Amino acid sequence: MTTAQEIMHRDAECIGESETLTDAARRMRDLGVGALPICGDDNRLQGIITDRDIVIKCLAEGKDPATTRARELSQGRPFYIDASADIDEVLHQMMDHKVTRLPVIENNQLVGMISESDLARNLPEEKLGQLVEAIKSGPADRSS
Question: Which of these CATH numbers, 3.30.930.10, 3.10.580.10, 2.60.40.10, 3.40.50.150, describes 4-136?
Answer without folding.
Answer: 3.10.580.10
